Amino acid sequence: MHPMIRPAAVAALTLAGAALLSAGAVTARPDLTQTPAEVRAGTYALDSDHGKITWSVNHLGFSTYYGQFVKVEAQLVLDPADPSASRLTATVPLTQVDSNSDGLNRHLQTPDFFDTANHPTAAYVSRSVTVDADDASRATVVGDLTLRGVTRPVTIQVTFNQAGPSMGGAYKAGFDGEAVIKRSEFGIDYALPAVGDEVKLHLEGEFVLQPSA
User: Fold this and answer.
1) SS (H, E, C) 117-152
2) What is the secondary structure of 145-207 as a DSSP string?
3) How far is Cα 156 from Cα 206, in angstroms, rounded to an integer?
4) How far, in Å, CA of 99 to CA of 178, rounded?
5) Radius of gyration (C-alpha) of the chain in whole angstroms
6) pTM for the whole thing?
7) pLDDT one-digit tens code per residue, 160-204
8) Is the CB of residue 76 less than 8 Å from the CB of residue 207?
9) Strand 87-93 to strand 73-78: parallel, antiparallel, or no bridges (unpaired)?
10) What CA–CA distance (Å, rounded) separates 56 from 67?
């Protein structure tokens, strides 16, 4: 034993670890599930504190530039018995963008980009949900994205993470998603092609089951 690690300290650490284990602090949560068919059916609302959209775009060939949209609002109607009947709608406040640059945040509000004076939000409405035949935790969501008054189809590849009671006790279902859009298709062509046309979107969402009506 290293002379700096005294037997009394080892004993104290061992007792502390045993206490944590006995209190359930690091034990598995049997009430959580990663099986999609076991998720509760119903209407879910996005917990906006734990839901955001991270975007990335090629910047002049020097780097991949990242930013985020926060304060996203979304509703998910989930039917595990018939996933194709599930529906997703979302509203993205374009003024709530964080690019890690105050100057760019302001520029993004102008007609060069989002033109938030006339189009303060973007909206997504799903049209179909198709579960992967080989992996029930993955699904393809096809829907319509409206941005700057232009509506185009956008496909989201979704991964189900888990569902069950969260730390506060509310029942949640968690998902990640990936999508790619071309900004030029929505009338955003500023600085093309130096700044990339393709914008990759990574979506994260914890949805809270709402009380039945």
Assistant:
1) CCCCEEEEEEEEEEECCCCCCEEEEEEEEEECCEEE
2) EEETTEEEEEEEEEEEEEEEE-TTS-EEEEEEEEEEEEGGGGT--TTTTTB-SEEEEEEEEEE
3) 16
4) 19
5) 22
6) 0.84
7) 999 999 988 999 999 999 999 999 999 999 999 999 999 999 999
8) yes
9) antiparallel
10) 7
